[in-house]
Design goal:
405 residues; Nucleotidyltransferase, domain 5; 4 domains; two-stranded antiparallel sheet; DNA binding; Transp_IS110-like_N
Length: 405
């Protein structure tokens, strides 16, 4: 009985073309070919790969960039796809670089099982698109604000003095957006005001875009992983970045330590002589590392448990940088659990009807728990996550109901 030959495929991807190389499961080169990056080219590549035998695995370089189309086409045809790292630099210096060489290198990496990763789910692209658009709007808004300030520095004296009195950037932008440049006679003043008004109106448009895209991110991240979005200090932007880094298919994360290395918060020995210490890895995805850093800063400023922990560590003689590293590592451990084992979150929608049914005001409820009324209001509307406060609040309301009965 003859069994079909088992084949491993490597793919070197580009914007307009992909180059595939086939090797047997024993490492024997079978052939290579180039295809276009369109549906017809992808189907031709699949037929070409299957012509050598049973395709075991396809290793694609850049499954979330130039190789996204090929990856989706392969997966739609029930072909297992993994992501491979780019060829080693030292090997490139020895052997040279070309599309066939890179494709064969990818195939051999798959066969050796070295540096492989599960391809991200295509749904990750939806989050990535929204996040790119939002951050682009924020960057353009910041640039426009700086351009307004630069123009006013060199503007005519009377114009500069008139707009210097606004205490905030928001007030300045509002005033410039509603100004009337043609009411002035000096041509320089008119030109500067026209430019500033255009920039101010652009800022208003970008702010609306920011709000709309943030709302879309909020809804999408809450749908994909409500537990992650509900974690303290995790906003729409932060949740989206963590989901993009990890991928919406959480099984691609092998372990909590692997996620820590991916996010650049794995402890690395940094000892020398009598000094024994660790530092955090400077590798990994720096955007994910920045997301964890923002969570730490929020909790350091507003979360009581985190502030108590910081106080204990500082009293024990640790520096603020050391405490920051400890917090980032601990939060990475928490985020990994949210990413890999999503759990249902407490629904707060019953709190406000229960309070209103007992004729209790926000002020009275806030006074009982020694918090501001806005805290209770945001909790009832689902704008603030605090499971401990919500549980105590619900128990208190139920107790009042029992006492009234």
């Amino acid at each position: 009985m003859t069994f079909p030959r088992r084949v491993v495929i490597g793919a070197d991807t580009h914007l307009d073309t992909i180059h595939l190389a086939a090797i047997s499961d024993t490492g024997q080169p079978l052939g290579d070919a180039e295809f276009r990056t369109n549906p017809t080219g992808y189907w031709a590549a699949i037929c070409w790969a299957r012509s050598f035998g049973e395709v075991v695995t396809v290793g694609v370089e850049g499954t979330s960039s130039y190789g996204a189309g090929l990856t989706q086409a392969m997966q739609a045809n029930d072909i297992h796809v993994v992501e491979v790292n780019r060829p080693d630099r030292s090997a490139r210096r020895r052997q040279g670089k070309s599309d066939p060489l890179d494709a064969y290198s990818a195939a051999r990496a798959v066969l050796a099982g070295h540096g492989l990763a599960v391809a991200k789910d295509p749904h990750t692209g939806a989050l990535k698109a929204l996040l790119i658009a939002r951050r682009g709007a924020i960057k353009a808004r910041t640039a426009a604000i700086q351009q307004i300030k630069d123009l006013l520095v060199t503007a005519p004296v009377d114009l500069r003095e008139r707009y210097r009195r606004y205490p905030t950037t928001l007030r300045l932008v509002e005033a410039l957006a509603g100004c009337r440049p043609r009411a002035h006679e000096d041509p320089t003043t008119v030109s500067v005001l026209i430019a500033c008004k255009a920039l101010a109106q652009r800022i208003g448009y970008l702010e609306r875009q920011d709000r709309e895209l943030t709302a879309e991110l909020d809804a999408l991240t809450a749908t994909i992983n409500p537990a992650l979005r509900a974690a303290y200090g995790v906003g729409p932007d932060t949740a989206a970045q963590l989901l993009i880094t990890a991928g919406t298919n959480s099984h691609r994360l092998r372990s909590e330590a692997a996620f820590a290395m991916l996010a650049g918060v794995a402890p690395i020995p940094a000892s020398s002589g009598k000094t024994s210490r660790h530092r955090l890895s400077r590798g990994g995805d720096r955007a994910a590392n920045n997301a964890l850093h923002r969570i730490v800063l929020v909790r350091w400023s507003h979360d009581r448990r985190t502030r108590d922990y910081v106080a204990r560590q500082l009293a024990a003689g640790r520096s603020k940088n050391d405490v920051l590293r400890l917090l980032k590592r601990a939060i990475a451990r928490e985020i990994f659990r949210h990413l890999t084992a999503p759990c249902p979150i407490d629904d707060y929608s019953d709190l406000r009807p229960a309070r209103q049914a007992r004729n209790i005001t926000l002020t009275a409820a806030a006074a009982h728990f020694n918090v501001w009324p806005i805290t209770i209001s945001r909790l009832e509307r689902g704008l603030k996550r605090d499971d401990t406060l919500a549980t105590n609040y619900r128990q208190w309301l139920n107790t009042l109901l029992i006492d009234a009965a």
